[in-house]
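Tip: read the tokens left to right.
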């Protein structure tokens, strides 16, 4: 009976070691995959260095006759124009009192 328990203990130890190796290999594969994704993004930036990063822009809506900018185009009216929030601010527009509760308009 002692031999059986020893064999089971050894087998259990081997299984734990193999499981640890599997987790390590999986972690390395994930790290390599993430590194590849970052490298591809960096390559795209190097290929198009003058390309605007519009994904980070915040857009608001203005009207030609108004002085307020809006998050909701319905609040701005039918003749609203979508612009970057920095452009609206640089033209003297201020936040609409109905829209100012949105965090990025403050």
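Filled-in amino acids:
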């Amino acid at each position: 009976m002692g031999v059986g328990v020893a064999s089971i203990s050894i087998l259990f130890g081997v299984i734990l070691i193999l499981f640890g190796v599997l987790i390590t290999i999986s972690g390395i594969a994930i790290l390599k995959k993430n590194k590849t994704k970052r490298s591809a993004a960096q390559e795209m930036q190097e290929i198009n260095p003058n390309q605007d990063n519009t994904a980070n822009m915040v857009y608001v809506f203005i009207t030609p006759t108004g002085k307020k900018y809006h998050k909701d185009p319905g609040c701005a009216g039918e003749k609203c124009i979508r612009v970057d929030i920095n452009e609206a601010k640089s033209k003297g527009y201020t936040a609409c009192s109905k829209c100012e509760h949105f965090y990025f308009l403050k």
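The mean pLDDT is 73. The CA atoms of residues 13 and 86 lie 61 Å apart.
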